[in-house]
C-alpha cells in the first residue's frame, strides 16, 4: 500500500472519528464523501467501507466515555433504548444495504446528497427562516 494512501486513509479515519465523538456523526457525513473525493471510491464501495468501519471496536471507547460522563451528569444513557435502537439499526442496515446495492450509483449519490442537504437545512433552521419569509409575502 502506498504511503500517500495510508496517510489519506488515516486522516479520513481521524476526521470521521473526531467528528463522531464530537457531534455523533462521522461515517456517512464525513467518511463517505472523503472516500469518494480523496480515494476515488465508488458510492457503494464508500458506503460499505464506512459501515464496516463503524463496528463495535471503533466506537466502544467513545461510547464508554459518553456513558460515564452522562451518568456523572445525571443524564445516563438508557441501555434498554440502546438495545432497541441497535436491533432496529441491525435490521434496517441489512435492508438498507440491499436497497442501496439495487440502486444505480449515480442515483444513490443524488439521494445521499439530498439527505445531507436536508439535514443541514433543518439543523441550521433555514426551514423556519424561509417559512417566515413566505408568510411575510402574503
Care to describe what's here?
The chain folds into 2 domains: 3-104, no CATH class; 105-138. The model has no long low-confidence stretch (mean pLDDT 85). Helix content is 85%, strand content 0%. The longest helix has 24 residues, at 79-102. The chain has helices at residues 3-23, 27-39, 43-53, 56-72, 79-102, 105-123, 126-137.
Q: Tags for this entry?
A:
7 helices, 138 residues, globular, single chain, 2 domains, mainly alpha
What is the compact description of this entry?
This protein is mainly α and 138 residues long. The chain has helices at 3-23, 27-39, 43-53, 56-72, 79-102, 105-123, 126-137.
Number of helices: 7
Strand portion, in percent?
Answer: under 5%
| Count of discrete domains | 2
Overall geometry comes to globular
| Helix fraction by DSSP (H/I, runs of at least 4) | over 70%
Task: Give the H and E element order.
Answer: HHHHHHH
**Quaternary class:** single chain
| Cα-atom radius of gyration | 18 Å
Number of strands: 0
The profile of the biggest β sheet is: none
Low-confidence stretches: none
Q: Which secondary-structure class do the elements indicate?
A: mainly alpha
- The end-to-end span amounts to 61 Å
Mean pLDDT score: 85
